[in-house]
Amino acid sequence: MTEERILGSFDAAAAWSAARREEGRRVVFTNGVFDLLHNGHLDSLRRAKAEGDTMIVALNDDESVRRLKGSGRPILPLDQRLRLIAALHCVDAVVAFSEDTPARIIEAVAPDVLVKGGHYEIHEIVGHEFVLARGGRVLSLPLLPERSTSGLIEKIQQRFVTGSS
Description:
Elements: E1 6-7, H1 10-22, E2 27-32, H2 39-49, E3 54-60, H3 62-69, H4 78-86, E4 93-97, H5 103-109, E5 113-117, H6 128-133, E6 137-141, H7 149-161
Parallel strand pairs: 1-4, 2-3, 2-5, 3-4, 5-6
């Protein structure tokens, strides 16, 4: 079941989304790196899914992660990240994108609800103009405190590489 949730192209994601809308379902879209899946990710994904009926999650491919996060990332390669996110009950489909922003995949999926976790103002969320122009909603969900992949990596490095806690 996990494998069938992984969509192989923007066209497949667009078709998936269109089929859900034809069924009368509200499509939620969110995106991110989702490297080293943790409780903050789970919380954000569950809250995002609650904003609609079905949810697609777009993941940065490995090259775009390196451009955005640096040469030491991602920790987990794209195929593993796709399978992990696709296995979550709150996620209905996943797709990868290679650009530095999800603008093109947002336009392909044309979600009813665009959700981003973090400290973003609505006008800072990539794709907000497109979604709002279509009559959709754009939400910025606050993150759980002290839950970030970068913070987790730093903690692991401090504890196991330098020996401090």
